[in-house]
Design a protein that fits this description.
CATH architecture of one domain: 3-Layer(aba) Sandwich
Distance between the termini: 50 Å
CATH class of one domain: Alpha Beta
Order of helices and strands: EHEEEHEHEEHEEHEEHEHHHHHH
Radius of gyration: 22 Å
Shape: globular
Structural class: alpha/beta
Largest sheet: 7 strands, parallel
Strand content: 15-25%
Number of strands: 12
CATH topology of one domain: Rossmann fold
CATH superfamily of one domain: NAD(P)-binding Rossmann-like Domain
């Protein structure tokens, strides 16, 4: 059983990590909106405590998960200063700093610049582990995940940067990774947390969108905004994100093979039924999907082109049918 302090507990990731980790571990929540002072190990774990009250007590936790961020420059500066205080105060706890895989975008928005600044401040601290998740989804809806779910219910979408590819990671994968790192003998300084790479268009289909879609390629977005790129920091944050996404390189699934098999099963099942035009199923498709997983074919599948995936699934379908005919 680990003792966690979650800083930034009211955001989408904070609420979900609190819910998941508190099932088997002790979790104490800290929020900038709270005025309740934390007074050490005997404090009521059900409360949310003020951020500043953690100073002086941080070493009584096995791990501190730092999630605080803001869209406003003054608040970001305050978050940075508070983080520096935590680093000076702490000498024993493992500190997880949440960055983002968007730092690999060629075009740097204010959000990305802030994440890079936080990484540079913390990377020399011996107890800091930097986590760079992709787009996080699953659990109690919130943040970008909630936006995906809301838009996926619409009958028509105009989708800028529809071919822009980025990584996606389930909230459960993140919690498992945190626990795995805490129990590991050797720990890296940073981890890119990606379950699967998807284009924006594929992501909307994955999250349940069945309507009509007007895709706008990233090349058109870049062309339209090219004269204005030096002024990107003055654009609304959602516009900045769309433009920046068009410069995102495709990240590999990380070496720890974090892929959530349930997620992949759903994604592969949709492709499998669509490619083979299956209506009257004569065998268990779910059993077939599990057989693919057991043979680790899904790692091959993720790196294939659309045409290669079509041939791959058709061929596997034929083999599976042949095998079960005798």
């Amino acid at each position: 059983m680990y003792k966690f302090a979650i800083i930034g507990c009211n955001g989408y990731v904070g609420r979900n990590l609190n819910f998941i980790l508190s099932k088997e571990h002790v979790v104490t929540s800290f929020s900038h909106s709270s005025n309740v002072e934390y007074r050490g190990i005997n404090s009521n774990r059900e409360n949310q405590y003020s951020l500043n009250s953690l100073i002086g007590y941080s070493n009584e936790f096995d791990s501190i998960i730092f999630l605080s961020e803001s869209k406003h420059a003054k608040e970001r500066e305050s978050i940075k200063n508070y983080l520096c205080e935590i680093l000076r105060d702490n000498y024993s706890s493992k500190i997880f700093i949440f960055s983002s895989i968007s730092i690999f975008n060629i075009l740097k928005t204010e959000y990305i610049s802030f994440k890079l600044k936080i990484e540079n401040i913390t990377k020399s601290h011996p107890n800091v582990i930097i986590l760079r998740p992709g787009v996080i989804y699953g659990g109690i809806p919130g943040g970008i995940y909630k936006t995906f779910l809301t838009l996926s219910k619409k009958k028509f979408l105009t989708l800028p940067c529809s071919d822009g590819v980025t990584g996606y990671v389930n909230i459960n994968s993140i919690s498992k990774k945190i626990l795995a790192i805490l129990g590991a003998d050797e720990i890296k300084k940073s981890y890119n947390l990606v379950d699967i790479n998807l284009s924006i268009a594929s992501a909307f289909r994955f999250f349940g969108f069945h309507g009509l879609m007007l895709p706008i390629p990233s090349g058109i977005i870049l062309f339209l905004f090219l004269p204005f790129l030096p002024f990107i920091k003055f654009f609304p944050s959602n516009v900045q994100s769309i433009i920046s996404l068009s410069t995102m390189p495709k990240l590999k699934i990380n070496e720890e093979k974090m892929l959530d098999t349930f997620i992949f099963r759903k994604f592969l099942l949709i492709d499998f039924v669509k490619i083979n035009h299956l209506k009257n199923l004569k065998f268990s498709v779910r059993g077939f999907i599990r057989a693919i997983e057991d043979n680790n074919y899904y790692f091959q599948y993720l790196n294939m082109s659309t045409r290669q995936r079509f041939i791959f699934l058709k061929r596997l379908y034929e083999i599976y049918n042949l095998k079960n005919a005798y």
